[in-house]
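Subject: Sanity check before I submit

Could someone independently write out the structure tokens for this chain? I want to compare against mine line by line before I put it in a report. The sequence has 216 residues.
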Amino acid sequence: MELLTQFIDIILHLDRHLNWLIQNYENWIYLILFLIIFCETGLVITPFLPGDSLLFVAGTIAASGAMDVQFLVILLMLAAFSGDNTNYWIGRYLGPRIFTRTDSRILNRKHLEKTNRFYEKHGGKTIIFARFLPIFRTYVPFVAGIGRMVYTRFMTYSAIGSFFWINSFIFGGYFFGNVPIVKNNLSFFILGIVLISVIPGVIQFTRNWLEKRKAN
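---
Independent answer below. Compare away.
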């Protein structure tokens, strides 16, 4: 419970924690942010790391001159893109080894074939839109690898998604984070960003649950 409380405190007060890291680690903050964004998008075991809110706060702090915003944007686009690609290849390597049975209800080859067909048809827009959805952006590249989406196609859409995701939140914070009403209520705006990001996933989960209930 204490760890959960500390994690929530970090999420809601990212500005304080990020300022503390800058004061204590100076230019190492760039490496720290790179690793957080890389892991949040590149490792299926770390979907809980802050993404949208971290980018917005980083942009807000960059506006004060504490970080170089142009270097920050380029670095974090590289982190997001390389994380995506790492996750893709992990999924592509593990997929054939996981989906080996034909009689398993969950991990059977029929599901793998359905995944392949889905990414052939909808993979591009899924890769881009998932960028703006917490948890989804962690798992979608992994599933794309499992579905063996054509790599050059995946790489193209991953680059597009990384560009729009990083730029929209970094520059959103850069231009609006220090507006008095936002600055004085930054914790509430961070909470709002988190909630808005999660809502589409909740809606989709609820829709799938209702469809399953109707089918039964």
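---
OP: Matches mine. For the report I'm noting this point. Residues 124 and 157 are 6 Å apart (CA to CA).
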